[in-house]
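Students often ask why inverse folding is considered easier than folding. One informal answer: many sequences map to the same fold, so there is more than one right answer. In these notes we will look at a single instance of the problem. The structure comes first.
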C-alpha cells in the first residue's frame, strides 16, 4: 500500500535532531526555523523531554479514561500554574482540530445556540466541525458548507451587528493568525470582542493552537491584550511533537458525564510529553528568551530584510514581501539548509523557530536571508 499523496515532500529524510538542528540520512545538517508549523517549542530531542517520555514508557500500564490517571491531574495543575489559569479546568484530546471541535461544541451546549462567528483568513483545523470555522476555499468541502457561521473582518461594529441577532454561541479567534500569514488583531479589538461576548452571552474562544505555549513571548498571545476567553484551545507546541491537544475551560462552564469524550486524549505518554514541555519552559525561562530573541530578530528584519511588513510577536514572525516568497523559501532550504514556512498568502514567509533558539542560529538565518533577497529589495 502507498501513502495517500496529499503532502508535497522535500527529498529529505531526517534521522537525528537536537535543539534547532537536524541531520538527514546523508549527514547533511539543517537549521529548523519552522518546527513543523510551530510544533517544536522546546527544541528537538530536549534531554529532559526524552527522559520524561522514556521513564513513562517503562511505567505504562492499563490505560482508560474510566480510571484515575494521576499524570493527567499533574499536567492540569502545572498548566494552570504556568499559564496563569489555575481556576480553569482542562479537557484533553489529541490535536488542534479536535480541541476546536470540542470548544465549539461546549460553547453550543453552554448557550443553547449554534451560530459561530469566525474571522476572514482564519484557520481552525481540517475536521468537519473545525474546518467549518475556516474560510480557506482549498479545504472547505461541500459537506462543510451548510454550517451556520459568519466570517467577519476585524470590525467590532460588524461583530455586534451579528451578535444582536441572538443566535451566536461562540466567537472563535486566533489571537495571532498563523496559516493566514501572521495577522494580528489589535489588543483593543480583542478587548472589545471580550466585552461584546459578555454583553450578548456568546463564548469567546481563543484558538491558541499555534500562538500559545510561549510562542508570542507570553504563555498565550491573548494575554498581551489582558483578556480572559471562556475557552482556550491548545495543541502543537503543547507536546513538542507528541500528539496532544486540549481546551482550558473557564469556571462558569458546568461539566457533566459524557458531555465531551475521547479514547486517546490524556494518555500517559502524551501527558508526560506535555509536562516535560511545561517544566522546560519554566526551568529555562523560555518566555523571556522568546521575547528577547523575537525582539532581536524583528529589529534586524525591520532594518535589513527589505520586507513590506514584519509582523507578529515573540518567535511568531511573518515577513510580507511584494512578490511571492516561494523562491526565497526554496533557496533557504536548498542552498542554506534552513527550514522556514509559507502561509496561505503566497507573499508571506513564516518564521516559527524553537523557543530556545540561540542568537548565533538567529544570525545564521539572517545572513542566509540577506544573501538571497536581492540587494535592490533590501536597500
Ligand atoms: N488552529 C490553528 C490556529 C492552527 O494553526 C491549526 C493547525 O495549523 C489548527 C487549529 C489545527 O491543528 P491540528 O493540525 O493539530 O488539527
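Output (designed amino acids):
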Amino acid at each position: 500500500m502507498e501513502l495517500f499523496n496529499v503532502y508535497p515532500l522535500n527529498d529529505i529524510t531526517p534521522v537525528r535532531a537536537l535543539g534547532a538542528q537536524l541531520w538527514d540520512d546523508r549527514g547533511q545538517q539543517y537549521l529548523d526555523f519552522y518546527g513543523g508549523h510551530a510544533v517544536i517549542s522546546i527544541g528537538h530531542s530536549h534531554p529532559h523531554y526524552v527522559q520524561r517520555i522514556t521513564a513513562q514508557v517503562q511505567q505504562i500500564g492499563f490505560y482508560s479514561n474510566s480510571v484515575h490517571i494521576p499524570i493527567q491531574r499533574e499536567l492540569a495543575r502545572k498548566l494552570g500554574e504556568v499559564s496563569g489559569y489555575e481556576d480553569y479546568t482542562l479537557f484533553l484530546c489529541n490535536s488542534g482540530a479536535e480541541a476546536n471541535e470540542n470548544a465549539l461544541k461546549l460553547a453550543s451546549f453552554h448557550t443553547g445556540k449554534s451560530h459561530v462567528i469566525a474571522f476572514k483568513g482564519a484557520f481552525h483545523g481540517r475536521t468537519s466541525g473545525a474546518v467549518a470555522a475556516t474560510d480557506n476555499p482549498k479545504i472547505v468541502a461541500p459537506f462543510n458548507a451548510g454550517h451556520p457561521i459568519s466570517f467577519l473582518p476585524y470590525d467590532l461594529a460588524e461583530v455586534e451587528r451579528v451578535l444582536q441577532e441572538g443566535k451566536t454561541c461562540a466567537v472563535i479567534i486566533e489571537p495571532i493568525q498563523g496559516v493566514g500569514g501572521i495577522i494580528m488583531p489589535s489588543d483593543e479589538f480583542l478587548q472589545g470582542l471580550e466585552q461584546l461576548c459578555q454583553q450578548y452571552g456568546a463564548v469567546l474562544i481563543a484558538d491558541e493552537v499555534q500562538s500559545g505555549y510561549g510562542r508570542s513571548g507570553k504563555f498565550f498571545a491573548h494575554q498581551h491584550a489582558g483578556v480572559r476567553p471562556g475557552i482556550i484551545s491548545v495543541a502543537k507546541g503543547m507536546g513538542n511533537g507528541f500528539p496532544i491537544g486540549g481546551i482550558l475551560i473557564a469556571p462558569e462552564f458546568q461539566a457533566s458525564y459524557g458531555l465531551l469524550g475521547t479514547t486517546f486524549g490524556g494518555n500517559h505518554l502524551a501527558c508526560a510529553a506535555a509536562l516535560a514541555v511545561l517544566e522546560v519552559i519554566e526551568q529555562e525561562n523560555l518566555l523571556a528568551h522568546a521575547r528577547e530573541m523575537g525582539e532581536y530578530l524583528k529589529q534586524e528584519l525591520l532594518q535589513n530584510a527589505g520586507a513590506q511588513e514584519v509582523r507578529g510577536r515573540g518567535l511568531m514572525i511573518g515577513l510580507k514581501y511584494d512578490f511571492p516568497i516561494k523562491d526565497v523559501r526554496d533557496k533557504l532550504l536548498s542552498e542554506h539548509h534552513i527550514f522556514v514556512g509559507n502561509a496561505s498568502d503566497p507573499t508571506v514567509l513564516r518564521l516559527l523557530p524553537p523557543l530556545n533558539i540561540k542568537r548565533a542560529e538567529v544570525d545564521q538565518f539572517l545572513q542566509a536571508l540577506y544573501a538571497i533577497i536581492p540587494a535592490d529589495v533590501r536597500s
